[in-house]
Design goal:
The chain has about 180 residues and is mainly α. The chain has one domain. Helix content is about 50%, strand content about 5%. It contains six helices and two strands, in the order H-H-E-H-H-H-H-E. Strands 1-2 form a two-stranded antiparallel ribbon. Helix 1 packs across helix 4, helix 2 packs antiparallel against helix 5 and helix 3 packs antiparallel against helix 6. It is globular, with a radius of gyration of 16 Å.
Length: about 180
């Protein structure tokens, strides 16, 4: 049934992914996302995740942004990207939020470094965000969604960050 819904959505006009749905819950833009990333250095947080540390999650988010400029190591086939992948992005875009397996690495991506410090991981993500914001060249197809415009890619990155941010929890001091 779900596959049928995705196929129907894939045949809908691509205007559905016009970046019109409100990003909720999430980040409205890079400034808000950057502020939240920087906040990780100001207050103690942990990641409600069984497989990755907070630093590894930030590395994963940075990889996603970096690959949008460099190319993904193991893209899905063109047919998948143009049908199911495009339909998935259209669905997320219309909802203004993404939901995906938060423990799944990007196919073919280098392993996340469990020893990398939080500070280094924060800096890597901020650097990736800055590089994307100033990138003048062509963007590479997303491994699952295929070709995305700059606005769609930024939206996909913000939804991806917001989806992972649902796991970030501030540690509160107990008196």
């Amino acid at each position: 049934m779900r596959r049928r819904q995705l196929l129907i959505a894939a045949s809908a006009p691509l205007g559905l992914s016009g970046c019109a749905g409100a990003l909720s819950p999430g980040f409205a833009g890079w400034p808000q996302a950057r502020e939240s990333v920087l906040e990780l250095l100001m207050r103690q947080h942990h990641l409600a995740h069984e497989q990755w540390s907070l630093a590894q999650m930030l590395q994963h988010a940075a990889q996603s942004i970096e690959f949008s400029m460099q190319g993904y190591p193991e893209p899905k086939g063109a047919l998948f990207q143009q049908t199911l992948g495009r339909a998935a992005f259209a669905w997320f875009d219309a909802r203004g939020q993404m939901s995906h397996n938060l423990a799944e690495p990007i196919p073919g991506a280098p392993a996340l470094d469990p020893r990398q410090s939080l500070r280094a991981s924060v800096q890597r993500l901020l650097d990736a965000m800055d590089a994307f914001a100033t990138h003048k060249g062509a963007l590479r197809p997303h491994f699952a969604y295929g070709e995305l415009s700059r606005a769609e890619y930024q939206r996909a990155h913000l939804m991806h960050l917001a989806n992972h941010w649902t796991q970030v929890q501030a540690l509160t001091a107990t008196a």
